[in-house]
């Protein structure tokens, strides 16, 4: 059980890398399944293009949406976007950074699918076989006696080895190799463009806007960590709340036993242990002991989150010596500014630590 808990904590702490790996593995597995099964091109001029392009485009769109569904940060992005402003101003750059980060991870699987499909070349062959120049691979003598419709139907049958019945008119093997070579060339070009785009996004962008990039990255991490800590605090409070409720329930239905424990000898240390446990539970409840109060806390957290300004308040009861009353500003020891001898005394300074953000 400890090993599974450690593994879960590791995956939770490395959620982004884990999600990237999951998306890549899903794309590779799906592409492998696609290659394992027999390719069923319709070999009909009206449907070849739609079938081939559909296999090249529709699965990447599904993988892209699946990447958004499996990413837990989508709910955090939607919550931050739709929350009331309250005491925190929403920063569009933070939302944009979070959306771009989620989108980048969701694009891994579609990129892998498109690359593997182009490298395989079957869908590309099915889609563009009718656009092949038949005179480059066919017998010119036999082609001249065929109509345009017959030529298109013959080209549409090139992806289908079992139903291609005119090898003397056109070399199917040569035509297939030619189209697959073009498909693989497009695949390598696609990989090169995606790699260059990833390099431009991840390496060059921070060089031009380093300060803004660091600020945006920091506060996006803050929003994520704050949400996780709030969830953990709510879970801990709910656990303690349930524990205290159950304890009070059992104590209420066992009044005789409770009275007996109250009149025990002071030599028994269990009373001290119970007091310590109750004190610990009280600390975990954070002063919230009622359902309505907890609902109010949750509602206020959603509608008006606290401002991002941390400060250390001055202790109560601290005296301000040296200040002259307003009615004695012209006394012997008073000055025109209300202080003794016209100078402010050396008062202890307050310590403030204030952090501002536009999140």
Report a brief summary of the structure.
By secondary structure, this protein is mainly α.
Comma- or semicolon-separated keywords:
359 residues, mainly alpha, 67% helix, 0% strand, elongated, disordered C terminus, transmembrane, transmembrane helix, transport, membrane, ion transport
Helix proportion range = 55-70%
Q: What is the molecular shape?
A: elongated
Give the strand tally: 0
Q: Could you say which structural class the secondary elements and strand pairing correspond to? A: mainly alpha
Order of helices and strands: HHHHHHHHHHHHHHH
- Please tell me the overall pLDDT: 75
Largest sheet: none
Low-confidence stretches are 264-269, 317-345, 347-359
Radius of gyration: 36 Å
Distance between the termini: 40 Å
- Beta-strand content estimate: under 5%
The DSSP helix count reads 15
Topology:
Layout: H1 2-13, H2 15-36, H3 45-70, H4 73-82, H5 92-106, H6 108-120, H7 122-128, H8 134-137, H9 140-143, H10 148-156, H11 172-208, H12 210-252, H13 255-262, H14 270-285, H15 291-303
Helix pairs in contact: 2-6, 3-5, 3-6, 3-7, 4-5, 5-12, 6-11, 7-11, 11-12
